[in-house]
Amino acid sequence: MSTETMVQQFPLFINGKWTPVESGETFDIINPATSEVSAKVSKASEKEVELAVQNARSTFESGVWSNKTPEERAQVLMQFSKKIIEHAQEIVYLEAISSGGTLRKLAGADIQQLVLCLQQTVKQALEYKYVETLPVVTALGPSRNQLIREPLGVVAAITPWNFPLVLAMWKIAPALMMGNSIIVKPASNTPLGTLKLAELAVEAGLPPGVFNVITGPGSTVGEALVTHKEVDKVAFTGSTEVGRSIMKQASGTVKKVTLELGGKAPAIVLPDADLEVTIPGILFGVFFHSGQVCESGTRLLVHDSIYEEVIAKLAEMTKKIKVGNPMDLATGMGPVVSKQQMDTILSYIESGISEGARLVCGGKRAAGPGLDQGYYIEPTIFADVQNDMKIAQEEIFGPVLSVIRYSTEEEAIRIANDTIYGLSAGIWSRDVVKANKLAAKIKAGTIWINDWHMFRMDAPFGGYKQSGVGRELGRNALDEYTEVKHVHTALTNENDQRAGLKLIF
Ligand code: NAP
Ligand code: MG
After folding, report:
1. Among residues 95, 294, 378, 472, which one is catalytic?
2. Does residue 234 contact residue 260 with C-beta atoms inside 8 Å?
3. Is 61 annotated as catalytic?
């Protein structure tokens, strides 16, 4: 049997069932560890977008989910989280053969996050104020004034390939919990796990049509969702470039958008930093998941007094990161997601060299037994980087650290903020009082002090500046998936008590 016939094929998931595309067209999913075809997925067209939107819309209007109580929805979502645990092995497998994420990342972080995100969203939604009665004011005459939270309707989620399931769940959980219907358009490199999630949700008792997945090119399927008049909101994570285009396209129907875009996070090392903690922390901050994380600490600002020492120690410790097959538990860094991404990263490395940065370690494709067919890149460190170099200004989304020298705190803050991005930042210091003072001066949505990549499902995540619009996670996320309605009820039959009438009579 040829591999061609052995690979699994995935239709779309619409209205609670596997749905083939009319054209019969498919596209290949490539395993980044081997460059082999690992699955085939249906290529949707605008026809299927229409089908998915109509189903999501009629399901929403039917009230089968949107009219359920928060307690009833909570029960289904908790069941959904149990299904994820039961099927964790299959989910991890589907993610590994498409995203190249390591077993340690997928099993050790992603699965927990999916479950925690559902549990935490449920918890917060059960404490949420769906109806709030405002205090009485006399100016309007006797009245009762209520603020009522209602679901938006149909949400389209467009998701990236770096954390395909986690970043989808950040949208799915609040959208579903607040009563919306959702259509997810996963990244074309990594749609497999998301398709599986939709199936599990229906098995958990979610009514058909509430959670749909359509696969196909962002430029056609994505755009059709963003411009569709029956889609009420777009929740997007991905590049700033596509984020800009989504904002523009969504304006035609004045859709709500939340955007979680790129980053170029500064990590500031103060002279008093505890290097035993700081060195491994910096490397985890930038090389986790081969650097394919939007909030990675990619610009390292190191004080003059310890500059060469920090660089030497970083280079030394980088040798301890094992680059290899993602399915091997010894592997600390797997491949990058695609050949295209690998080529982009290598061209950024070239630009760093040609702009005069000093290559300290790495800088090329990783070689060795079993690596030749995959998209592996050595963990790479550049020193003597100037903040106006391309490698310091643009998001590389690969295992590349740019080290920049500074001499005063004011200079460090100025460099830290000299970027179009503002997703995250970090400070390494023994003096946490000072670190907190500096944190106040950095324009970024998340700041880590002596740590990195730490997420709480009850803390909002999102960007300042061109890193995004809105926040995911936490209570804010629930607001982002609702409309608020103000209902004013006059509590009098006496016309002389009504504030408005005397304006014209
Ligand atoms: P991307 O183009 O922004 O893709 C993200 C999602 O948007 C995918 O589902 C994509 O679908 C879809 N999309 C693409 N063009 C679209 C359009 N015109 N309208 C609507 N949806 C559209 O990201 P990428 O090309 O995969 O990666 C490029 C760079 O983006 C990376 O190198 C990195 O710098 C950044 N990135 C950031 C994050 C993050 O977490 N903030 C995540 C991933 C990538 P297709 O997959 O079908 O194109
Ligand atoms: Mg793209």
Report:
1. 294
2. no
3. no
132, 159 Cβ separation under 8 angstroms? no
Q: How confident is the model at residue 2 (pLDDT cuts 50, 70, 90)?
A: very low
Give the model's pLDDT for residue 5.
55
Residue 153, token pair as written in the block:
């309707």
Residue-wise pLDDT tens digits, 397-408: 999 999 999 999
Q: How many CA atoms are closer than 13 Å to the CA of 243, on its beta-carbon side?
A: 23
- Cβ pair 444, 452 in contact under 8 A: no
Q: How far apart are CA 299 and CA 264, in angstroms?
A: 7
Paired strand residues for 365: 377
Q: Which residues line ligand 1 (CB under 6 A)?
A: 158-162, 185, 187-188, 217-219, 222-223, 226, 237-239, 242, 245-246, 260-262, 294, 395, 397
C-alpha–C-alpha distance, residues 56 and 180, integer Å: 9
Cα(212)–Cα(481) distance, rounded to whole angstroms?
17
Residue 426 has pLDDT above 80, yes or no: yes
Q: Is 294 a catalytic residue?
A: yes
Among 165, 239, 290, residue to substitute to test ligand 1 (most atoms within 8 Å of Cβ): 239
C-alpha 42/C-alpha 24 separation (Å) is 7
Give the mean model confidence (pLDDT) for residues 309-330: 97
Compute the residue count for the chain.
505
Please report which confidence band the pLDDT of residue 282 belongs to, taking 50, 70 and 90 as the band edges.
Answer: very high
Q: Distance (Å, rounded) from C-alpha 240 to C-alpha 254? A: 20
What are the chain's domains? 45-261+463-486 (3.40.605.10), 266-449 (3.40.309.10)
376-421 confidence digits (pLDDT tens) = 999 999 999 999 999 999 999 999 999 999 999 999 999 999 999 9
Ligand 1 centroid–CA 330 distance in Å is 30
The mean of the pLDDT values for the chain is 97
H helices within 142-235, ranges in order? 164-177, 192-203, 223-227
Per residue in 76-85, pLDDT (tens digit) is 999 999 999 9
Separation between Cα atoms, residue 71 and residue 125, nearest integer Å: 9
How many angstroms separate the alpha carbon of residue 358 from the centre of ligand 1? 30
